[in-house]
Amino acid sequence: MTDPKPRTSRQIVLQSILDLAEHSQPASRQRLLEITGLTYGAVDVALKDLRTEGLIRCVANGYYEPIDQDIDRSVSTTSLPHGRLKVEIGDDVIADLTPREALALAKQLAGLLFAFGAFSWALMPPAQGGRQG
């Protein structure tokens, strides 16, 4: 059995940016240095290459985010008789849910919404110019 090929600095930096973005965390140069353990030079070269390839963009001075490579599909739900719910994504009917299944899905989606909201609030800058207590 052979060992897998070691990952390049470019791959390590890209995966780190993707991981941070998945958790709604900013990917700053300093943060990338901390989590990857790579040198300044290696991180800078990887960032430059990833920007050139169109895989990331600079959203603020020194902060990066991945560029979504997937095309979003339309998502719709249709209420059916007897409390049933039809879920469609793109041209596919994903599910014809019973009321109990719809409730289970709603709970999961509400949890995602709550988590997204918590991360969004954590990333907001503090209010400026307010009175201090």
From TrEMBL:
This is Uncharacterized protein. The chain crosses the membrane at residues 109-127. InterPro entries: WH-like_DNA-bd_sf, WH_DNA-bd_sf. Keywords: Membrane, Transmembrane, Transmembrane helix. It comes from Hydrogenophaga atypica.
